[in-house]
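Please study the protein below:
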Amino acid sequence: MTLPPLTTAELPGGGISFRKTGDGPGLFCLHGLGGGSKSWQRQLAGLSDSFTVVAWDCPGYGGSQRRAPTAQSYADAAAQLIEHLGIGPCYVVGHSMGGIVAGRLAGSRPDLVSRLVLSCTFWGEGGAADAPIGANWAKRLDDRRTMDDDSFGLARATGMTGPDVDEETFEAVAEIAGEIRLDGYEDACRVLSSSDNRDVLPGLKMPVMVVDAEHDSVVRRDRIEPLVAMIPGCRTTTMQGVGHAPYIEDADGYNAMLRAFF
């Protein structure tokens, strides 16, 4: 599967790298903590017949420069990229950490988001910006510091995928995770630890769909259900047979779900 080339947009606050393909309404994809623009390879390939699909590397990932490690700072960077590419208002899909950023983007710049998918995500840990990061994120950060790329990728893929994942998909998830930069990973852990989208979620006016996955052990349903309850008129979909990477574990099902909603 051929990936579109990685391109960097020089934006206020620093360059942001992304992949772009297709023609049609804009579809902007934001990856999670263990991902990158490559995470969306099966959406870039499978949806480009109907959409202009853009997958970014969040600040500190891929070729993107770091920014202040807050959801608002990352949302501002996303808004800048959407405006730079001229694809707004667009459909937005945010997965896990990317869902926190996407929620903040939709709340702060609703003019850029026509429909929103929050995939396997929650509203954030809500810790103080200057507090130590949560124990869960600290453990993952320590793993990134101490493991080689291959070992870290395998560890993350094991936690992210469901019990019936095929070898090719597992290896793809592991490869992407193994490429994550340490500085970007540390910043992203701080974003997760300090974010709290409860101030913006109830005010969302665009159609919103929340997606969870049957075997997701990273963001469990007890974290997703309160998110759903907070968003007026929110739709829900559960992906069966997959873990925390449904966009690649069941790409055909995920893409069909996005087509139906968009």
Observations:
- The two ends are 24 Å apart (CA to CA).
- Strands lie at 7-9, 16-22, 26-30, 52-56, 90-95, 113-119, 208-213, 235-239.
